């Protein structure tokens, strides 16, 4: 499959602090790709770099084979890339429906009232609870309902690529499962998804492929099923035995060196 998003040697950071170091990854059209890693690894920074919130310091970012480096965020959204930020960041004193309508603000097609109404109904069909809550203030909803609203708001921009930043954060396990099921449904409806998650197991269970980010560098990549079965990934991210042990650290370091030596072609099963 052709790459919808392609990063090649991308570096970025904040002020004088470098966070990402020569990141190379791809997301093909129609895929769910999971990006996993510990807190502080640079996962959110990567998403913010793709959407232009953080400028790149090197490398190239292509969306649908066209460079998007240096474009402002609004322009990138108009091209079809939309991010659901960590902790939802809804407008708390606005209603659910007002929040959803804000998602259509930067659309390139300038939809009229009829089109917007149809798009709202589409989101209410996808997330029936939001229809029940459409006149309710966003800040008064539960965490799971707010996450649904944040995703629906992003979908109102009609994205070709959806970037999800920690959608399971702070949610009960049952709600996490419901959110992940919704993400799978979105992919079935044609949405391509780059999923950033600290909850590595649920992310890899629904993803086609995955990348492991360690201190700003990609150290492992491969089919999600291979990463789930990888002992180093199990120990580091899936609650396996020996997490934090020297043996686990050595396995990750060895695989990272193999990955870099292969130019990013190595997989979890290599």
Folded structure, characterized:
With 270 residues, this protein is α/β, with parallel strands linked by helices. The chain folds into two domains: 183 residues, Rossmann fold (3-Layer(aba) Sandwich), CATH 3.40.50.300; 70 residues, no CATH class. Helices cover 39% and strands 25% of the residues. The chain is built from eleven helices and ten strands. The protein has a six-stranded mixed sheet, sandwiched between helices. Strand 9 and strand 10 form a beta hairpin. Helix 3 runs parallel beside helix 6.
Q: Keywords, please?
A:
270 residues; alpha/beta; 2 domains; six-stranded mixed sheet; four-stranded antiparallel sheet; 11 helices; 10 strands
How many DSSP-defined strands? 10
**Major sheet: arrangement of strands:** 6-7-8-3-9-10
Count of runs of 4 or more consecutive helical residues: 11
CATH superfamily of the largest domain: P-loop containing nucleotide triphosphate hydrolases
**Largest sheet, described in full?**
6 strands, mixed
Rounded to the nearest angstrom, the distance between the terminal CA atoms is 22 Å
The CATH class of the largest domain, by name, is Alpha Beta
User: How many discrete domains?
Assistant: 2
Rounded to an integer, what's the Rg over CA atoms?
Answer: 19 Å
How is the topology of this model organized?
Elements: E1 3-14, E2 17-28, E3 32-36, H1 43-50, E4 56-63, E5 66-67, H2 73-79, E6 81-84, H3 96-102, H4 113-126, H5 128-132, H6 143-155, E7 161-165, H7 173-188, E8 192-197, H8 200-206, E9 209-214, E10 217-223, H9 224-229, H10 231-237, H11 246-261
Parallel strand pairs: 3-8, 3-9, 6-7, 7-8
Antiparallel strand pairs: 1-2, 1-4, 4-5, 9-10
Helix pairs in contact: 3-6, 10-11
